[in-house]
Amino acid sequence: MKFLTQNEAIAVDETLFTECGYSVDQLMELAGQSIAHVTYHEYKTVPNILVVCGPGNNGGDGLVAARHLHFLGKNVTVFLPKAGKSQLLQNLIKQMQVLQIPILNNEIELNQVINQQDVILDAIFGHSFKHPVNEQFKKILEIINTSGKDTVSVDIPSGWDVEKGDITGEGLKPKILISLSAPKLCATHFKGIHYLGGRFLPSSIIKKFNLDTPKYPDNSLFIRLYI
């Protein structure tokens, strides 16, 4: 299994846009749906899921996943401390409002609801993240880490270096990691349950970047990795 550097991960996305005709919102929808399906698969019997979203595309993936989890019957709450300003993210926020999915935006509210949750979906930072974590998000990571709740991280455990892992010791400690498209180098330091999601890579991308992507089973949007 090939693990991508940060630059390779960014290049895969750019190639999907420029050479393959994908749009940002299309990739976000595909990623978010696979994230929701993994989370549902692992937590079928628990009702309450807190989706913690950052301001970038990783947060957008989380908002899409929140919508899909809502339609899969989960009681979803979104924590969005810093909303992105793009029209795409504003549209996703509007969808949360239409579906009456609560959106929280400060640490006081986070502390009030976190004990009522069964699992936390971490969609804060993605593969474009660079250290350091600012003070606002450092506190949020601490609240999640000390909550005792199962955490599922999207693509990169938030606070981790994309290639070197949890170099500060302050990153999240997820039980489950969902890599998107292909695992990033930091996943070599992850010892929990690992899934690959995002069944949308054209064969031209797989060949260009030498990705030994495993074959997804049947009609599944994800596959468990044992690496």
Summarize the structure.
Keywords: Isomerase, Lipoprotein, Metal-binding, NAD, NADP, Nucleotide-binding, Potassium. 37% of the residues lie in helices and 16% in strands. It contains 7 helices and 8 strands.
Rg (CA only): 16 Å
- Give the full name of the CATH homologous superfamily: YjeF N-terminal domain
Our measurement of the CA-to-CA distance between the termini, rounded to an integer number of angstroms, reads: 8 Å
The number of helical runs is 7
Please write the CATH class name. Answer: Alpha Beta
Strands of the largest sheet, in order across it?
3-2-1-4-5-6-7-8
Please describe the topology of this protein.
Elements: H1 6-18, H2 24-42, E1 48-53, H3 57-71, E2 75-79, H4 87-98, E3 103-104, H5 107-113, E4 119-123, H6 135-145, E5 150-154, E6 176-180, E7 193-197, H7 203-208, E8 222-225
Parallel strand pairs: 1-2, 1-4, 2-3, 4-5, 5-6, 6-7
Antiparallel strand pairs: 7-8
Cofactor: K(+)
Keywords: Isomerase, Lipoprotein, Metal-binding, NAD, NADP, Nucleotide-binding, Potassium
Organism: Streblomastix strix
